[in-house]
Amino acid sequence: MLSCLECKVAAEEGINALIADRNKQSAAVQEFACHKLLPSNFTDGCDDFLTLYLPTVLYMTWEQFTPEGLCTKMKSCDSVSCECPDIKNVQCCNLGCIPSRCCVRSNGVGGVKA
């Protein structure tokens, strides 16, 4: 089983490869759907429709996947480890900085609060 980091790196590469290869995927689906699956009287309309829309649909589909989502579903990452912590209101002293920095930040320097 992959670690969370390994999974995210592999998933990112996989998603990027799928997005980059969408025209080849589109051509393969179009060949099967329009020339093998449907009757011949639908071939021209099918080709026109899939040539126009399928690459965009594949792009939008692959863009919906995220490395975090894939790795969480594959149980390589837990959902908590993929979340970014909310640090907007966290101050230096709460993060365990060097005590002198906390002292300066708390008390100010030369009578001026930081």
UniProtKB/TrEMBL annotation:
Keyword terms, alphabetized: Disulfide bond
Gene3D superfamilies, A to Z: Saposin-like
Positions of the Saposin B-type domain: 1-81
Domain of life of the source: Eukaryota
InterPro entries the UniProt entry points to: Saposin-like, SaposinB_dom
PROSITE patterns in the record: SAP_B
This protein's name: Saposin B-type domain-containing protein
High-level lineage: Eukaryota, Metazoa, Ecdysozoa, Nematoda, Chromadorea
